[in-house]
Please model this.
Amino acid sequence: MDQRTKTALWILAGVVFLVALVAHHNITQQEIIIFCVVVPSIILHEVSHGYVANLFGDDTAKRAGRLTLNPVAHVDPVGTLIVPALMALSGIGVFGWAKPVPVNVGRLRSPRNQGVLVSIVGPMVNAVLAAVFGIVFVEVARSGLPPNWVSTAQWSTSAQVIFYASLVNVGLFVFNMIPVPPLDGSVLFERLLPARWWPTYLKYRQYTMPILLALVVLNFWLHPGPITWLFQRLYSWWAGVLGV
Model:
């Protein structure tokens, strides 16, 4: 069984599991909409890394077949299916990730400078998507909202999709710009780090991913934790920008 077949089976299992969750009322329409806008937003984020790297001389992602919008190529069975499903079942929220697009910084024509651009383009794509969907919401969808609404569940499905597409991409932009490895924002911190600090930094860099995941799990366990609190403020601010 090749890798694409295995991934397709994982996706099928995820779809079946999602249907089961809906049937048992463990997931709402709002959560389904958010999931449906998160997936393509993350894929565009990841593909942009590989696309820009290819422009600068590194065709690693292209040779790996990752410069595609086909979600099958980007699904991480654990991060995209198992972890979100288990967290949805537990009722503490949804968190997950896609399979990172491979980039060999050493093959870039100017690794130190172009490596920064390759990393930053992902969050920038999310920022552009947030702005585009935000403008569409304000100019097209907002006027059609029902009077005296108290929940986005009262909006039309199209209005919800446009709104959450903007909101989700704001969150993806801010989260990925946190200057902690392996998040994209760390490249700016590393670019400015004095050379004499690199040995110590590299010694501890390997522990940042487990620490980051532990903070996310702790955040959900506290329900809501500090990360949730901060992002709720971010989303409230952006909703105000959109006039809702």
Notes: Residues 111-141 form the longest helix (31 residues).
